[in-house]
Write a structure and sequence with these properties.
Number of strands: 29
Number of helices: 15
Strand order of the largest sheet: 1-2-7-8-9-11-10-5-6
Largest sheet: 9 strands, mixed
Length: 536
């Protein structure tokens, strides 16, 4: 039986090997919300959002992400511990087991697409075991019109069965959960995990192969926004660096918060139709756009509610990776469609817990490529007593877990696009100042916003163009002055008030960069290698 709510179209899952199901097709978010609550799979928060628990997995499981090794992929993929090969016959056998598992069940189907630029559109059909997973797909992918649905033909299929547990010895997986991409058959197969991020990151990973290999387009793990004059800014950064927060600017229109393509026509387009933001310590004062987006239609993941349905955003007893997904139209100030042109500024965001990188600095093309390949941020070791040493964390292209090709292929594309477009590239430290984690404090968000605004409106360059300070360890151009920012904040060395301690920590971090880059050296040209920091 097929339940069609928004459309008169009927579909069959028989061609996919899924039989005798009660199929709910294209349900509205409110219907999916209600179904999840009736099924005992969620609660309604006081904001009207649906609060769900993803179960055993509250984040991605990178070691359980595989790519089928076949004629399409064998010579293109950068195989290793990020892109782990999976046998094609094993995939077929596991796919049959998953479709048998879904047969006879109530399932939720959604047709949607990725890539806001019509020339690069990728049609997707999602088959979900759970209603809230299907609601996530509504939020995160782009939503076809009624006319587009009439003749819809998917290019990629996502089969998502969180309740199915693989048998590693028989199925070829590492453990009972898995996320497998099959480029030959254009299927993303996900099982054993309820974490919704696997759904969106599966398609992101697919596009990170399809766009550069087949479409001459650079895929980017970044957010983007556009100003009144049509100038686009791009924000690269790993989780926790402020990518979503800083791109949600009341004076600029949001293109998207996480995944974009940069075409040969110099168009920037959003892959997605929604946002998937961290909500740890969320407050209305600091992040009003995200806070206000949490309303009916949004899905809160792994948060803790009190008896009134209010969320305690500081409660990390389930996970630190508490999340919200919502359709992009929950943000007031958005670019429609989600496309921008003429990128003028790129920001690499890093939460440097060593506290040594300048809060903002300008990069040369070689430095930009070097820092892009490095993809640095830092993790704090923990909050238990006596543990206060930060740990450097590197993720190539600010998104290594989702990059099927060698990182230098993306870096070379970015370098060429930067040169062709004359874009300015800035390294922004949203991390610690006045000392490392445990000693210093987190950079004030108001100062980071002011520095980024000054970079975008040109006043930062105007004030410093003949007077940048070249950082003695990292070689980057450090501004001496910035509108609306105290001068002493701009110099990390001065905020420490301890030159010996500062330089010791700076050289420690520089050495971490060098060690991390060793695996890329043979692929990097002289310009990129010259972008490295100085080491003693």
């Amino acid at each position: 039986m097929v339940t069609n709510t928004n459309t008169t179209k009927s579909i069959s899952l028989e061609p996919y090997g899924i039989k005798d199901t009660t199929t709910h097709y294209q349900l509205t978010p409110s219907q999916l919300h209600e179904t999840a609550i009736v099924n005992g799979q969620g609660q309604e928060a006081s904001s009207g959002a649906l609060a769900i628990n993803t179960g055993e997995f509250t984040g991605r499981s990178p070691l359980d992400r595989f790519i089928v090794k076949d004629d399409v992929t064998k010579d293109e993929i950068w195989w290793g511990n990020i892109n782990i090969p999976f046998d094609a016959d094993k995939f077929d056998a596991l796919y049959d087991k998953v479709t048998d598992y879904l047969s006879g069940k109530e399932v939720f189907v959604r047709d949607s697409y990725a890539c806001a630029d019509e020339k690069y559109k990728l049609n997707i059909r999602v088959v979900n075991e759970y209603p809230w997973s299907n609601m996530f797909a509504y939020n995160m992918f782009l939503r076809p019109s009624e006319d587009e649905l009439k003749n819809f033909k998917e290019e990629w299929l996502i089969v998502n069965a969180p309740g199915f547990m693989a048998d590693p010895e028989v199925d070829g997986t590492r453990q009972h959960n898995f996320a497998i991409l099959n480029f030959g058959k254009k299927i993303a197969l996900i099982g054993g995990t309820g974490y919704t991020g696997e759904i969106k990151k599966g398609i992101f990973s697919a596009l990170n192969f399809i766009l550069p290999v087949q479409k001459e387009t650079l895929p980017m793990h970044c957010s983007a926004n556009v100003g009144e004059d049509g100038d686009t800014s791009i924000f690269f950064g790993l989780s926790g660096t402020g990518k979503t927060t800083l791109s949600a600017d009341p004076n600029r229109k949001l293109i998207g918060d996480d995944e974009h393509g940069w075409t040969k026509e110099d168009t920037i387009f959003n892959f997605e139709g929604g946002c998937y933001a961290k909500v740890i310590n969320l407050s209305k004062e600091n992040e009003p756009d995200i806070y206000n987006a949490i309303k009916p239609g949004a899905i809160l993941e792994n948060v803790v509610l009190d008896e009134n349905g209010d969320v305690d955003f500081a409660d990390t007893s389930i996970t630190q990776n508490t999340r919200v997904s919502y359709p992009i139209y929950h943000i007031d100030n958005i670019q429609e469609p989600s496309i921008g042109k003429n990128p003028k500024n790129i920001f690499f965001l890093t939460a440097d817990a060593f506290g040594v990188l300048p809060p903002i600095s300008k990069l040369s093309p070689g430095q930009a490529a070097y820092h892009f390949i490095s993809g640095y941020t830092a993790k704090v070791a923990g909050t238990e007593a006596g543990v206060d040493e930060p740990m450097p964390s590197f993720s190539a292209c600010f998104g290594a877990p989702f990059m099927p090709l060698h990182p230098t292929r993306y870096a070379e594309m970015l370098s060429q696009k930067m040169k062709d477009s004359g874009v300015n590239v800035w390294l922004v430290n949203t991390g610690w100042t006045g000392g490392p984690y445990g000693v210093g404090k987190r950079m004030a968000l108001k100062y980071t916003r002011a520095m980024i605004s000054a970079a975008m409106d040109g006043s930062l360059e105007e004030a410093n163009k003949d007077n940048y300070h070249t950082h003695s360890v990292f070689g980057v151009k450090q501004p001496r002055t910035c509108p609306n920012v105290p001068t002493d904040v701009l110099s990390p060395r001065k905020t420490w008030n301890n030159d010996e301690g500062y330089y010791k920590k700076a050289y420690t971090l520089a050495e971490s960069f060098r060690q991390n880059f060793l695996k890329f050296e043979e692929y990097a040209n002289e310009e990129i290698l010259a972008g490295a920091p100085n080491v003693k």
